[in-house]
Design brief:
By secondary structure, this protein is an all-alpha fold. The chain has helices spanning about 10-20, 25-40, 50-55, 60-80, 90-100, 100-110. It has one domain (about 25-115).
Length: about 120
């Protein structure tokens, strides 16, 4: 039985602004909600809750979070939304390393395609 996909639609700019204002604390919440959506879309656990939580707190784990999102979850999401598949893994890894709020903004933009 397919679980329903939770609604988590935010403006990507809001993700960026809240990430800055809260010094990244918002990204912990965002990671948890994003993992729930991506796991529901994939119909399996791609990003576990502990990984989502620690990705907001721990620097090396956030790179792993964006790797899993870009490599495993976003291609499935593109398939479900009838969008062309493009591998954004390297882009998300680099941005996750240098500027994680922008990587989160990109992933949120992809998630928002579910709700259009």
């Amino acid at each position: 039985m397919q679980q329903p996909i939770p609604v988590f639609k935010n403006d990507p700019i809001i993700v960026l602004i809240l990430g800055f204002i809260t010094c990244g604390i918002y990204l912990i919440y965002w990671n948890i909600k994003t993992a729930q959506v991506l796991n529901a879309v994939a119909e399996k656990e791609i990003i576990s809750q502990p990984i989502a939580i620690f990705a907001g707190c721990c620097f090396p784990v956030n790179i792993y979070f964006y790797y899993l999102a870009g490599k495993d979850a976003l291609p499935i999401l593109a398939e479900k939304t009838n969008q062309p598949k493009n591998d954004q893994t390297v882009l998300l890894l680099i941005l996750g390393l240098v500027f994680p709020m922008v990587a989160a903004m990109i992933v949120q933009g992809e998630i928002n395609k579910l709700y259009n």
